[in-house]
Each structure stands twice: as C-alpha cells, then as structure tokens.
Amino acid sequence: MTGVTAAAPQRQRGVGTEPVLTVRGLEKHFPIKGGGLIRRTVGQIKAVDGIDLDLYPGETLGLVGESGCGKSTTGRAILNLQPATAGSVKYNGRELTDLNRAKMRPLRREIQIVFQDPYASLNPRLPVLDIVGEPLIIHKVVPKAQLRERVNELLQTVGLNPEHNNRYPHEFSGGQRQRIGIARALALNPKVLILDEPVSALDVSIQAGVVNLLEDLRDQLGLSYLFIAHDLSVVRHTSDRVAVMYLGKIVETADTEDLFDRPAHPYTQALLSAIPIPDPQRERRRKRILLTGDVPSPANPPSGCRFRTRCPKFANELTDDQREKCINEDPPLIDRGNGHPAACHYAEALTLL
Amino acid sequence: MATLIDSAAEPASTSTDAVLEIDDLNVRFPTEDGVVHAVRGVSFSLRPGEVLGIVGESGSGKSVTSMAVMGLLPGSANITGSVRFRGRELLGLKDQQMSSVRGKSVAMVFQDPMTSLDPVYKIGNQIAETVRQHDKSISRAGARARAIDLLKLVGIPNAAGRIDAYPHEFSGGMRQRVVIAIAIANQPEVIIADEPTTALDVTVQAQVLEVLKTAQDETGAATVLITHDLGVVAGMVDRVLVMYAGRAVEKGTVDDVFYRPKMPYSIGLLGSMPRIDAGDRQRLTPIKGSPPSLINPPPGCPFGPRCPLHYAKCDEQEPDLYEVEGPRHTAACIRVNELVEADVSAEDIFSDDSSDTTLAAAAAVGESALAEQGVGDAAAETGGVPTEPPPIPGVDHTARHDQHEERA
Questions:
Q1: What's the mean pLDDT in A141-166?
Q2: Looking at the complex, does the CB of residue A24 fall below 8 Å from at least one CB of chain B?
Q3: Under an 8 A CB cutoff, do A274 and B206 touch?
Q4: What does the pLDDT look like over B2-23, one tens digit per residue?
C-alpha cells in the first residue's frame, strides 16, 4: 500500500451528484422508566431530535460534538441498529427506517460500521481469519475455498501482514485491532462506512496511521464516510464537510475550511477556541471563549435555543429584547449571510484560528 | 557539544533551590511473566512556581512516576533512586510519615474525577477533612468556612449551598474542580496533576485548565502536569519531559521541545498530531509499530525498532541524554548532532505510508516497513537492521562518520 500521490484522481463529490445517504428529520428518543412495580414511561431522553444530513458519494462528512450530544445514536439510528423514533433515512432513494431485520440484511452489505473501541468490538475467541471472514460467510459472497484468499487480500488492504490471519485479537496492538475492524467492515465491499470515533481510543502516533489508512481506502475504493468524532482536529484533517451537534440537534454545518475559518454559531466558536494547539507561542497568545456550566439534560432541554443556557453571546452581548427570541423561538438551521447554515438567530462569523 | 550529562549532576543552580528533586528513579513490578521495568532512571528537578509537563503515550511510565513520588504504589513495587522534597528523602518513608507529606507538601489531582472522590461523603466534609488532617488547630466551623472559600476559588457557583452535596450530584467538570480544591486546601508546594482533563470534554477541559492556573497562581506551587495531549502541554508548562518506554528521552523548555525537537520519537509524536490550525490537509506522519514490552527489554535504544534512523549501533547500548545546544535541552539519541545540523521535520524522516505490519510482540522488526522507506539494502544483510546509518536529509554523511566512533 503506497500513499496517494498528487497524481491520484481527485475525489468527486458535490455539484450534480445525488447523495448516497439522505437523512431527514431523524429523531431517536429513549423512554425514561419510572420506579415501582409497573414501570411506566415518565419522560423521554431526546438523544437525537430532528436532524438532516446528506452524504455524497466519495466524501467524508464529519459529525462532531461533545459526549451525550447524540452523534453516536445518530450513526446507529441510520444503520437501523436502534430503530429511529421518527424521520427518514434513505440510502440511494430507498427508505431504511421501516425495514425489519431480514429486509435490512441485504442492505448491510452496502452500509457498514467501524466501532470506537477496538478492544471490545472484536471477539477475543476468534482468530482474525474468522472475524474478517464472518460477514463473507453470512452473506454467502465468497465460496468457502476462496475465503482465506479474500481475507488475506483484505488484511493486506488495511496494511496488516496476511500471515498473521491465524492470530487472535490479543496478539495485536490497538492500532492493528482497529485495522482488523476496518477490514471486517470492508469485507462486503460497502459503499458507505459509518466510522464511530474510529481513532479516539488510540495513541496519537498510532492514530495517524489509521487516519491515513482511512483516507487511502476512501480514495481507492470510492467510499463515503460518516465520520463521527469529538476531536475537531481529526475532523478537520479527514472531512470534506462538517456538521456540529449540540444536545440532539445540528447547530452548524459547512465545508470544512469554511467552518474552521468562519465559525458562525457561538457553540462552534467556543468549541474551536477550547481546543489546545500544540504550538506554545500561539497557545500563550490565544484567547479562549469559556463556556459556563454544563450541558443540560436531553430529557428536558431548554426552550427556544438549546444552547442559550451556556451561550456567551446570550449572556454578554444581547439585549433583553433580543434574548426573548432565543428563549421563545427555536432557531432554524439556515444561512444568515455567513456563507453556510447556522442555527443561531444572531449568527455572526468570527475568525478564531 | 556532545558532552554526556551525568544524570546525578543536573545544573548545580537548580539543585540548591529545587522543591522537588527526582534522581535516577526506577520502578520495577514483579509479575508472572517477569519483572516489568516501568520507570527506568528518570531524573528531574522542579523549582518553586515552575510548571513541568511530562508527556508520553499510554504505558510510557508517566503515571507510575507520579505515583512513586506520592508513595502510592503497591507494596510489591520495587522502587530505587531518590525523591527529595526540599532536601528530605521521601522514598523509604513509612506510610504514616508519608501521610503528613501527602496533601500538605505535595498534593495530587487524579485523572478520573468520578472515582477520586468518595461517593458516600458530602464534598464539604471531604475538603474539610483534608484541611483538619494537616492542621488540627482549625475548628470544624473554620474548616467548613475554608471549604466554602476553596469551592468559590475553583469556580463552583453557589458554593455555600453546594457544600453539602454528594459527588454524584456534580458533573465531571465540577467534580474535577472539587478535586483541585482538595489538592490546594493546604497550600502545597508541589501539585502533581495526572491527566487532569483527559476524562473531560474539550469545553470543560478549557474551564478546568483555567481553574488549575488559578489554583497555581493562588498557591504559588510548582506543578507537574502529566498528559498525553501535546496541546494541553503547549499552553500550560515552562519545561517539558518526553517519556518513552519508561525513560526520559527528551527534556527542554517547552519552546525547545516543540519547535526544535531532537529525539526522533518527539519529532514523530509532534508530526503525527492532526492540528486544528493546519489549513491544508497534508498527510499525517505516523510512527510505525508500537511501544516495546517493558519485560526484559533488549539492549539499545527502546525506540529503535520504530525509528526510521535506526541502525546497528543503536542496538548496542541505550543512549544517554545528550546536550542539544546547551545543557537545558537534552535528547536521548546517538545521532543528535546530525539532527541538530539537519534541523529535520517529521515528514523528512518518517514515511506517511498507512500500513502497519510491525507486530508488537514479534522480535523481528518489520522488514517490509524498513524496505519501503528505502533502507532495504543494508537491512537485508543483518536481518532487518541496517549496518550503516540511514541518511538524514540535509546532512553531509561522508563528513559525519567519525562522529559516531567518538561518541561511543
């Protein structure tokens, strides 16, 4: 596997092409059960509360947010691993949310997932050959005689030595285990990969190799990625477009460069300013936008704009009249003259980096 | 320039007024598989008010170092060397004697605020306990008032009302503030913060780092900040110590280590970080393979098997810390002079290839990885390790050769 050179064909995406994956109004609510003998539902955790996404062929869409914002639940609801409460997910025009397990199964060849924790997502009792070969057997895509050959090919694709196909997961390092997880996801030649924090559990020196691998695979195999992460530096590095989530909703979405150069939503701005840069002089000069308080409970989100309870703009800049609007009206995700949509009534692009 | 620094003789000026001095600290854990040598000869000293960052990846020995200083390692651990607080030796003290040091002279902030507070006691009592433990003359009411002050200092809103809350009523960031309040309760002279923000989200991390700075200003304590996040280190510390496989492999001021790293591991670590301020999407430069096992490590440089500049001489002896343009910046690499001359970046020496065929446990160093980097010819003869030093871009190698002889 060599790196992608400048001569490699540019990835095609965007204008004129149809999205492979379209998400509209996706909601996933989890019931809160009361105590007592009859466990009645006493409330709803609105983990995902109405989000729209489009994923175009060959692109990487980054979905970022802090713990509990609903980004992983979004990934799982798209795959129908946790059935959505409402909304629609279309893969190449085909609705996924109303499919049962059996009908979903053939589509699983097309959309695969890579999990966060490479220690928990591989069966410790199976050798690599069986782990990577399992999807091939279940979907009956490769005759038994050629199974070993195909698995070795996959291992080579993800930069592992095929001679190690009879080893068990514990014999591999974290980075290598994540590569096994990627090989398993690639086994059925999917078109779309949902990467749920694929490098969060890895040390930086190892994370870099996996990030490069994912980029190479996307370019060579023409994959589309939904890249779920909390680390904005990784997202800046890997994604073509980024959607920022807060408390179950997307608050800002833009092309990567645009989002990092001109963030318009106060939450995105705070998030960007909070990320430390490994550059001592810049870091000493930087001014941070510090948020107060913690993320409110998704069971009982604030009225109007969900971010207003922690919003520095709401607290310091707005007049009482302007605040009324934040309290009473949920800001739609639209472009307010900043070049990309942001869900803030008073969105205003800033340069932070 | 190539003078070897004796680890026992750090620049003399520091050893006189240092609050904390660590000398040749070694920690060994006996296990069923053999002795794990987790910390191997770490030395550093800390002046009053100074902030030292210790960085390294999982398993590099940074936390074990801090636990050894605090005397918190299990009895089975074999600790040698010296840890001196204001000239007083701490290693070998009885647990009871250590109790008067811990929290009073040297305080600690742990990584996980979910587990470092006792869930069955109110946070006010936990802070007051720390205060009264070291100063029995303070009344209960006085300790409680002090606890409220401390909570205010670390930015807990409505401190007087929250003092009787239990830890589970606080969020992660708030709990970490409480832990910091406990750490500074007795005006310690040294605070050791072991990954204080790793378990927190970035916006909360920013808040807690601010609190840590406030706490440091308030107490004037020297601080050891242990973290794997190079970004956190960049903004917080004066000096940096990079650890790899239980050893300090590079030491220097934060600017030296970040702008002029001279140990290939530090160079690689900085190059492998995706940066939020990097506009163009250049490829990251990963470090191949994974850290070595610390059970019976082979002789030679522990980073050798992952190092693109590795050759036979590297395996003969573990490199000491050599001076890089002055005694304040040191790096553990026998090729440090060449690296100083070439002033290389990570892209120059590390390949950005995305494969990873080197097995952690396997003794054979990934031949394929080396071959891909264009050093295959020499590698073939000696079973993976080139006999001649792989070239560094920007160095005239014909002139350099005698340097190595002299160094050995």
A1: 92
A2: no
A3: yes
A4: 444 444 444 444 445 899 999 9
pLDDT, mean over chain A? 90
Instruction: Classify A78 as helix, strand or coil.
Output: helix
- Number of A/B CB contacts below 8 angstroms equals 176
Let me know how long chain B is: 408
pLDDT band (50, 70, 90) for residue B321: very high
What CA–CA distance (Å, rounded) separates A223 from B231?
32
What confidence score (pLDDT) does residue B338 get? Answer: 87
Cα distance between residue B362 and residue A172, in whole Å: 10
The SS3 assignment for A245 reads strand
Backbone angles phi, psi at A245, to 5 degrees: -105, 145
Sort out which chain A residues have CB atoms less than 8 A from B360's CB and list them.
172-173, 176
Q: Which residue has the tokens 């440089």?
A: B301
**Above 0.90 for ipTM, yes or no?**
no
Residue A4 clears pLDDT 70, i.e. is over it: no
This model's pTM is above 0.80: yes
Structural contact between residues A156 and A148, judged by C-beta atoms closer than 8 angstroms: no
**Is the predicted pLDDT of residue A9 greater than 50, yes or no?**
no
Q: How many Å lie between the alpha carbon of A207 and the closest alpha carbon of chain B?
A: 7
* A201: confidence class by pLDDT, cuts 50, 70, 90: confident
Which tokens go with B282?
């250049």
Q: State the average pLDDT over residues B279-298.
A: 82
Stretch B78-93: mean pLDDT: 94
Residues B239, B254: contact at Cβ < 8 Å? yes
Which residues have C-beta within 8 Å of that of residue A162, sequence separation ≥ 6?
A: A151, A152, A153, A155, A156
Cβ–Cβ below 8 Å for A159 and B230: no
Query: What are the Cα distances from residue A298, in Å, to A30, A43, A69, A85, A180?
Result: 10, 11, 8, 15, 35
Helix, coil or strand: residue A260 = helix
What number is the average pLDDT over the span A158-187?
92
pLDDT in tens, B179-188: 999 999 999 9
Chain A neighbors of B203, CB-CB under 8 A: 66, 270-271, 274, 291
